[in-house]
Specification:
With 201 residues, the protein is mostly helical. The chain is built from 10 helices and no strands. Helix 5 (72-84) packs antiparallel against helix 6 (92-110) and helix 6 (92-110) crosses helix 7.
């Protein structure tokens, strides 16, 4: 069997090219969705914008909705790091409050591009549903992280409840003029109602 150019490429270079293609597809998709509306843009439109085939696009993104949430893995990693890497003496709830204020509320207020992304998701039923499924996956991972930090079994129901409400709290903020205060008060309620269930809580 003859060796192809791709076979001869160093692994690092191939991975960088794949990452670049993935990023180009996600960027093109978001730009087109914001310009024309999610439902008005087809998969072929996105593939053509990056000069790749639709087959190539689906190798990176199995469904259309996934193009909008290219940073899903990074978002989950930052969420879990808020628990695992919190400073000594800071509670889990306080750490999650800081994460929510900086990565969700604060970013929306300070970054017009992110605000446009959020508006796109909130205004598109298919993206709202996909985002909800994505957050449910994060909820499970977060519950396990809280349980580990608290020294209790991974399936502890208290940890599952805290993970759920911590992720939902920022979603109640858009209806208020001061989103920062709304989220802070929501987490204050969680803090007062959260019992220390282990040495790390």
């Amino acid at each position: 069997m003859s060796e192809t150019t791709a076979d001869r490429e160093p692994v690092g270079r191939r991975e960088r090219k794949k990452a670049a293609t993935r990023r180009a597809l996600a960027d093109a998709a978001l730009r087109l969705f914001l310009e024309h509306g999610y439902d008005q843009v087809g998969i072929r439109d996105i593939a053509d914008a990056v000069d790749v085939s639709t087959t190539t696009l689906f190798k990176y993104f199995p469904v259309k909705e996934a193009l909008v949430f290219d940073e899903d893995a990074e978002q989950e990693a930052r969420l879990l790091a808020a628990v695992h890497e919190r400073p000594r003496g800071r509670s889990v709830v306080a750490a999650l409050r800081e994460h929510a204020l900086s990565c969700r509320v604060g970013r929306r207020d300070a970054d017009p591009a992110f605000a446009a992304f959020v508006s796109l998701v909130e205004g598109t039923p298919a993206l709202r549903e996909y985002a909800q499924r994505m957050w449910l996956r994060h909820e499970t991972s977060l519950a396990h992280a809280i349980a580990e930090a608290s020294g209790v079994p991974a399936d502890d129901p208290d940890c599952a409840a805290l993970a759920h409400f911590a992720l939902e709290a920022p979603r109640s903020a858009p209806g208020y003029a001061d989103r920062h205060e709304a989220v802070t008060r929501a987490f204050d309620l969680l803090e007062r109602g959260w019992n220390d269930i282990g040495p790390g809580a």
